[in-house]
Amino acid sequence: MPMTPARTGKRAFAPGLSGLLILAAAASILPLNTTLAAPLAAAHAAKGVDYAILGPRFARSRAAHQDGAAIVARARTFLNRPPAPRQVRIEGVSSGQARAPGVAGPATADPSDIAASWTSLQDMDVMLDLALAWRLTGEKAFLSQSERYIDAWVSTYQITFNPIDEGRFEGLILAYDLTEADLAPATRVRVDAFLRRLATGYTVAMETGDVPIKPTLTNNWQSHRIKLATLAAFQIGDAALIDRAHALFDQHLEANLRDDGSTLDFAQRDALHYVTFSLNSQLIAALAAQSHGQDWYRDRSATGKTLPSTLAWLSPYAKGEKIHVEFLKSVVPYDRQRAAAGGAMFQNKPWNPATSARTYLLASRLDPRWTDLSRSLSDQAGRSTEEIESGERLDWLSLLAR
Predict the structure, then answer these.
(1) What's the CA gap between 273 and 235, in Å, rounded?
(2) Alpha-helix runs per DSSP H in 237-301
(3) Strand, coil or helix: 350
(4) What is the pLDDT of residues 280-292, one digit of tens each?
(5) What CATH fold (topology level) applies to the domain 34-400?
(6) Strand pairing partners for 218?
(7) pLDDT tens digits, residue range 360-392?
(8) How does residue 393 score in pLDDT terms, banded at 50, 70 and 90?
(9) In whole angstroms, how far apart are CA 13 and each of 22, 47, 292, 297, 386?
């Protein structure tokens, strides 16, 4: 008989705001409603569960749904697949370049080493699929294999605090979110220590400005740092680290967003790709906060800049009402280097609105006004022959909407 995933965690976490909202009540098809926060928060706090986004109620007995069935089927193919943890280097090498000019650290010029990094990072999607399948079915085989992957990575990988290389560690954090209460105590000790290093290291680097390339403190790299610090802080239930991540989140609104709703990345790169790349991480951080009863999505910077304003600025392009040819006026020489090396994404061609499907799917979980656009873009993405925005798997968001 399938096991039932445990529903209790290790520590109580009581944020200083209105309490914990169980975002992950997957049986609900309604958008999140802040009027529900108080009773759900009380119930969740009483269980003493720490989680990044999903929490103990997410995806229970949802395997019969189309999205759930697809996840379970995919996860079954991974039950005998061994994890492949290793130090990864993908930043600056996505189009055959050794590394971005000015990046500290050794170059990774060997194409086989680059390919091995990408292959290894597939483990993040695999472990999340396995954890989702465990939550969906209660089958112990999925839990055991997910634990095998999570433990292999936290026991092997040395955190580099490069947010491009480590951006996909979101998958590890969410896999742990789904399985923590059912893992061996020794595994939990190792994972908690790893996530504390991750959250603390990124937070301190941002607060002190101790990063190899100073301009990345205001561009998309900072968005990815904030995402990782926020997810890890909520997962370990550290209220002080969460508050520090929130302060950095708000500072970044001021530094990265422009008065007209555009972004610093757009001004520098002349590419909507980098607008969505940055927004996705900011929205995931806001989603983590919302799952704990905090509304970072509607935060305003000192001069009134907000994520909703930037989503509104982007929306005419996402709807196809405006056309933008990518990278024409980029001031970053590396973009031209990658285009010359054959990088498809960096060519001067019209931006594909379907590549913002991920962005507006995330936004729709924070703000129902983006639901219709999200559905339209998801349909386009399903029909598109172009590679859609790469990154972490978002099947869990589809389950979240049900």
Answers:
(1) 29
(2) 239-256, 264-269, 272-290
(3) strand
(4) 999 999 999 999 9
(5) Glycosyltransferase (1.50.10)
(6) none
(7) 999 999 999 999 999 999 888 876 545 444 455
(8) low
(9) 13, 10, 10, 21, 43
Q: Which residue has the higher pLDDT, 67 or 253?
A: 253
The dihedrals phi and psi of 180, each to the nearest 5 degrees, come to -50, -50
Residue 274, amino acid:
Y
Q: Which helix (H) or strand (E) holds 213?
A: none
The two structure tokens encoding residue 77: 């193919």
By C-alpha distance, which of 185, 210, 76 is closest to 133? 76
On the question of pLDDT at 331 being above 70, the answer is yes
Cα(105)–Cα(400) distance, integer angstroms: 39
DSSP letters of 10-38? S-----SSS----TT-TT--SPP-GGGHH
Q: In the chain, what are the domain boundaries?
A: 34-400
Q: Return the residue matching tokens 């061609």.
A: 349
172 near 83, Cβ under 8 Å? no
Q: Quote the Cα angle for 383-386-389, to 5°.
A: 100
Per the structure block, which two tokens stand in for 362?
Answer: 């995330």
Q: Measured between alpha carbons, how far is 157 from 303 in angstroms, rounded to an integer?
A: 40
